[in-house]
């Protein structure tokens, strides 16, 4: 044994970018990485919310910076990585979390919604990884990439046509990136969350009455063997493991964190 558990999970001196980190799962991940000592870039399309999150984090004594970036734009990914290097001097960890989940069926979906979902959820992940991997390789050190997939990458929830296609893509993109980058010392893994309570997930219930929400929630919880939805921190803990040295021999895998939904 060469390192203690504390040393394995210590991210002091490392810098991480978390996309879509202003709220929800991304924020839960950003908080755990920062607690472990990393400098964390809270990258989000919504700068005001990202700045609010960074203010909370710095008040807690963490090192964080907000950067506005739309993951669907390749130029934004390149700029976000450069701004990270300019601010913290290095980059060791990238968490590709930003994603959208528009509810539509195949008969209703528009080309615009299809393109937007795939651009944010899949293309954004590929090109943010490209920018980050180039920086890690140029710096001459190892790196960790964590992609946020979904149980929908394995099992369609329903009414999420473009989302399910994008998350299936995330699962295979993770494996392809892992193979591509292993020789450069960069581990690429994914987390497939089940239902997690976030602002985005709640917005899917907007427009429903309290009664309808209670009914939908009850039916939904019945599909989760553990009987509860996940929290952003449930995912933050797994992300910390995949970003830390504790997972050094793992690459190209997907950790499902869903309260048992897929085996239910
Ligand atoms: N909440 C769930 O139940 C659940 C389940 C499985 C997977 N996921 C995945 O987790 C990730 C986060 O989901 P969430 O529920 O926390 O979402 P959320 O909507 O609560 O938060 C998403 C964040 O991403 C940002 N964002 C949106 N589009 C962006 C873009 N183009 N560029 C940069 N930032 C952008 C938003 O501003 C927001 O801060 C997504 O990839 C989602 O597919 C969520």
Describe the structure.
With 264 residues, this protein is α/β, with parallel strands linked by helices. The chain has a single domain (5-198, 230-258), classed as Rossmann fold (3-Layer(aba) Sandwich). The protein has helices at 5-8, 24-35, 47-59, 74-88, 111-139, 161-181, 199-203, 210-221, 232-243, and strands at residues 15-19, 39-44, 64-68, 93-96, 143-148, 186-193, 254-257. Strand 5 (143-148), helix 6 (161-181) and strand 6 form a beta-alpha-beta unit. Helix 2 crosses helix 9. It starts with a helix and ends in a 7-residue tail after the last strand. The structure holds nicotinamide-adenine-dinucleotide.
TL;DR of this structure?
The protein is of the alpha/beta class and 264 residues long.
Observed structural traits:
single chain, 264 residues, alpha/beta, Rossmann fold, seven-stranded parallel sheet, 7 strands, 14% strand, binds nicotinamide-adenine-dinucleotide
Please give the order of strands in the largest beta sheet.
Answer: 3-2-1-4-5-6-7
Shape: globular
Q: For the record, what is the CATH homologous superfamily label?
A: NAD(P)-binding Rossmann-like Domain
Bound chemical compounds: nicotinamide-adenine-dinucleotide
Following the backbone from N to C, one meets helices and strands in this order, namely: HEHEHEHEHEHEHHHE
Blueprint of the fold:
Layout: H1 5-8, E1 15-19, H2 24-35, E2 39-44, H3 47-59, E3 64-68, H4 74-88, E4 93-96, H5 111-139, E5 143-148, H6 161-181, E6 186-193, H7 199-203, H8 210-221, H9 232-243, E7 254-257
Parallel strand pairs: 1-2, 1-4, 2-3, 4-5, 5-6, 6-7
Helix pairs in contact: 2-9, 4-5, 5-6
The chain binds nicotinamide-adenine-dinucleotide.
């Amino acid at each position: 044994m060469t390192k203690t558990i504390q040393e394995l999970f210590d991210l002091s001196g490392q810098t991480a970018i978390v996309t879509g980190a202003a709220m929800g799962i991304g924020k839960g991940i950003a908080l755990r990485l920062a607690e472990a000592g990393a400098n964390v870039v809270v990258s989000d399309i919504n700068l005001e919310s990202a700045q609010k999150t960074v203010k909370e984090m710095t008040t807690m004594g963490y090192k964080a910076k907000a950067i506005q970036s739309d993951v669907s734009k390749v130029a934004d990914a390149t700029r976000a990585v450069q701004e990270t290097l300019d601010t913290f001097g290095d980059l060791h960890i990238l968490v590709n979390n930003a994603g959208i989940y528009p509810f539509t069926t195949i008969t209703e979906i528009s080309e615009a919604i299809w393109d937007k979902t795939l651009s944010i959820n899949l293309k954004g992940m590929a090109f943010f990884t490209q920018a980050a991997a180039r920086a890690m390789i140029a710096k001459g050190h190892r790196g960790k990439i964590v992609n946020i997939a979904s149980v929908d990458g394995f099992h369609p929830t329903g009414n999420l046509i473009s989302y399910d296609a994008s998350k299936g893509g995330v699962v295979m993109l993770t494996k392809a990136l892992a193979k591509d980058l292993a020789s450069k010392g960069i581990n690429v893994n994914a987390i497939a969350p089940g239902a997690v309570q976030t602002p985005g997930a709640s917005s899917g219930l907007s427009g429903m009455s309290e009664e309808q929400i209670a009914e939908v929630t009850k039916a939904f919880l019945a599909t989760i063997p553990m009987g509860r939805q996940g929290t952003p921190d449930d995912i933050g803990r797994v992300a910390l493991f995949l970003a830390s040295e504790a997972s050094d021999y793992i690459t190209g895998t997907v950790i499902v964190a869903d309260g048992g939904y897929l085996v239910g």
